[in-house]
Amino acid sequence: MTARVRVEFAWPAHNAVRVGDETYFCLERDGVVHVLASRCPHRGGPLHLGRVEGGRLRCPWHGNAFRLDRLCERGVPAVRTGDRITAYVPAAPEPEDLPIPVRQMVLAQEEPVDVGV
Amino acid sequence: MTSAPVRSGIPETGEWTSRFATAPPYRPVSTPTVGRTPYRRPLDAERIAALRGDEPLTEERTGSDEALLAHRLLMNIYESDTLFLPEEGMAARQQDFEAFYDPATRLAADIAKPAVERYVFSFLDRSVQVTGAWDLESVEAHVTAAIDEAVHAESPVLRAIDESADPVRATETMVAQMALDGLTEATAMSQNLGGAYGPEQSELFKIFVDEFGYGVFDAKHSTLFAELCRSIGMTPTAHHYWFFYLPTWMTSNNYFYYVTRNRLGFFRYVGAMTLLEATFAPWFAAMSRRLKAVYGDGVDTRYCDEHAHIDQHHGRMAVRDLLLPIARKHGPAAMRELVRGIEDTKVLGRLADADLVAQMTWHPVAVAGGDRPPTGAPVRPGQDFDTRVAAADERLTVLSGQVELHHSPTGDPLTVPAGSSVVVPRGRLFGVRADRDSVVATTSSAG
Ligand code: FES
Ligand SMILES: [Fe+2]
Ligand SMILES: [Fe+2]
Known about the structure:
Chain B: Residues 1-39 are annotated as: Disordered. The structure holds 2 protein chains of 2 kinds. Chain A is mainly beta.
């Protein structure tokens, strides 16, 4: 079982979380915000910089496209109420690497959202 | 019974809603409290017919007049499928009994129900979003954090009682809301005792063994609640204070019927019940202290004291023996629903607290003089009584006669004589009554 760490952040002021070398990013589908692992299953490319095309997320590295419904199904356990998101991200190998909420300038989006500051 | 199609409220089923709401048990009464019978629960069929069912309530409108009407309707839909017998026996109530459980009315209730539920509860699908692949560790972490947060939060309701200029009225306004399930035997929460679902069913039963007083009537939680009511001079008949239930408190109570009458809601129900059971103990301990501070030694706090004690166990039992085993056995889809129930409860609790605090801290005052609107509506002695929620800040000006403004289940109403007015803030629940022919103008109170 994955060891997990709880992280809370205000969305959309923050739209991603870093834990050690990993990034988890928010993706809004039909008004619902999912928290997804950015590491591409192919060779680890940054899915959070990918493009959403017809229900799939295309990785910017080698162009593989992954079905969004499946990515969301396997997403990070998360709860959103209002602008608050609580997520349980996999812990980093170094326990002192705690999750840090961040704001990505460029982010894969199914629906345009006002990221605002 | 209406047979013409009604252009009403809850689409698809408007006619059925109307058939139900106009049935004898739901006819109006002229008094601010309802007689000592489980079978009278007044509904205003006309206002219900005006609901825009195609526009479900948003979270912002859970305390609105529309929510009030829809939740009264829904509570009656649910509870007409629940057994109530009159305390004094059936002899004088046979007709009411038959009317309350009339199969044609029940059929209308069952047909109307899904659309009414959608109208009042679909906001939760937007307010609470649970996503991702949950596992046992994340569920356990989440339920632990939710409980921790809840038991350490200060209750705004109890603080409002502490700070109230009229603590007795404030407390009784709260007790009247608690009576929603306190006097109906936690019926809404006990819908899943039947069925066949393994060891967890037995664990749930253990919790209810306490709730039901181990088969000893005097030890039942509802008996203890009735004794609390009696000791402070309140009437311990279910729904006696019908007109003073706040929409958000009916929301919380109806929620438990909503997630249990439809068995698809089972996991959500377990999440919701677990969070409540796990947070009741400190809340009831604090309430017991408040009750003694407000009423002195005469108040019977056993209802609170019992929960302050037993819910320490129920909380642990609900998490360890019910929620986590269910999560383990039924997997990620169930886990998501368990978490959703926890989150629903947090949202509903926050809305109910805010609504109740606003009602408790409203102390209406009649002011003489001021503008005199040219026309008003008659208020006659003995006419149907009802309460409603102000859609905006409203000024009621009494043009002639004299009216009583009812704004709490107990305590004197405010007398407003001719030539005076009173402001009802947006969102507040009130009713108007007169003992002589009167005329009241309702205007926006802006400025
Ligand atoms: S790393 Fe994503 S497609 Fe190759
Ligand atoms: Fe109880
Ligand atoms: Fe309990």
